[in-house]
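dumping this here so i dont lose it again. seq + smiles for zinc ion
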Amino acid sequence: MSIQAETELVVRSTTEVDEGDHERFTHIVLEGYTPKDGEFVALNNSVVEGMVNATPVRALCGKIWVPGRDPQKYPVCATCKEIATSLGWSLPGG
Ligand SMILES: [Zn+2]
């Protein structure tokens, strides 16, 4: 995956809500990017789309799940955070 610096990344964080799952984290989902001269390019299913249609999304760490409608405050997934910071992205919510 090669994304140039001029592109505007669309990154969204979403909580993993899975009944009976004791590991709850906020994962970072890269939804797509907008090149300087071009239209939005989607890379994955959008989180909103996932909430509405119950379609799975994929986080940076590779985890695939269906985002819940009721996001809560959980610690950011360490793997997602590591990948995002190594790519120089600014994390949603700090
Ligand atoms: Zn993650």
